[in-house]
Design a protein that fits this description.
Elements lengths: L2 H9 L4 E6 L4 H11 L5 E4 L8 H7 L4 H7 L7 H19 L4 E6 L2 E3 L7 H6 L7 E3 L14 H13 L17 E2 L4 E3 L8 E5 H10 L7 H10 L5 E4 L4 E6 L5 E3 L11
Parallel strand pairs: 1-2, 1-3, 5-9
Antiparallel strand pairs: 3-8, 4-10, 5-8, 6-7, 7-9, 10-11
Helix pairs in contact: 5-8
């Protein structure tokens, strides 16, 4: 099966697919066309940081630096991240209005992992039944070698847990840091970074709207928050299905290292 056919099967699993961008990001619009032109995506144009006034947004109650400091003091509450969170909330609101039940959300620098080693139809079949949110792309948070077969990763996780080697993550700051092997293609999520590719259901979309009214979290930290508070069942695809591009000074698109990884068939 070609990579293109494999990813078409993946795209067909979702009720709807959104891509978040801003009008000014012309080079990223080209990336969307190259990567997802045949996925029937809907582009959502978010808010450009050049167009916002922080003080006015505070007065209007759209954002709250005070609540951000109280709930997520370690985050960077910058214009760019506020706008990114606003764009993701716009997607959740659009999802609810249109009654979509299972949505894939992509950011405009998302890339297909062309070295993905598995049949994505089989991956879809293995999605945990109780999943509220799935990271299809992510960074960090896993302290195991993904190149090991599932049974070995599971065994090593149990040994570490029983022997107390995970106790360093028991305090509230690190709760949920270590991902737990769930099946061949998915782990229970730990503390991960990245909001460039994830899927969610309506229940989770409504919860995120509530948590982001006013806007408090930047996009990926809200995932760690609901996981830590046990407000949702969150999983990661192993290995990631979608990665993200980096852009150099001359707007040249460069794959991240994840795009070059080779994973063994388990």
């Amino acid at each position: 099966m070609s990579s293109q056919d494999n990813f078409k099967q993946f795209a067909q699993h979702f009720d709807h697919i959104y891509v978040l961008t801003i009008a000014a990001a012309k080079e990223r619009h080209e990336n969307i066309r190259e990567e997802f032109g045949d996925w029937n995506v809907e582009i959502i144009y978010g808010v450009d940081k050049k167009d916002i006034d922080i003080e006015e947004l505070e007065r209007q109650g759209v954002i709250s630096a005070e609540k951000n400091a109280a709930i997520d003091p370690a985050s960077n509450y910058t214009k760019g991240l506020i706008c990114a969170s606003w764009g993701h909330r716009m997607i959740y609101e659009h999802m609810i209005r249109n009654n979509y039940q299972n949505v894939l959300v992509l950011e405009d620098d998302a890339l297909q992992v062309r070295s993905f080693p598995f049949d994505l139809a089989e991956v879809i079949k293995a999605i945990p039944k109780d999943a509220d949110l799935i990271y299809w792309g992510w960074l960090g948070g896993v302290h195991q070698n993904m190149k090991q077969p599932f049974w070995l990763r599971k065994l090593l996780h149990v040994i570490k847990k029983v022997s107390g080697r995970l106790k360093q993550f028991d305090n509230p700051t690190y709760e949920g840091m270590v991902a737990e092997p769930y099946n061949r293609y998915f782990d229970k999520a730990g503390k991960h970074g990245g909001a460039h590719a994830y899927s969610l259901n309506q229940k989770t979309a409504r919860m995120f709207i509530d948590l982001q009214t006013p806007i408090i979290f930047h996009p990926d930290r809200i995932f760690s928050y609901v996981l830590k508070k046990r407000m949702a069942n969150v999983y990661i695809a192993v290995p990631p299905v979608i990665t993200e591009a980096t852009y150099s000074g001359n707007i040249k698109k460069l794959p991240t290292m994840l795009d070059y990884h080779q994973y063994p068939v388990q």
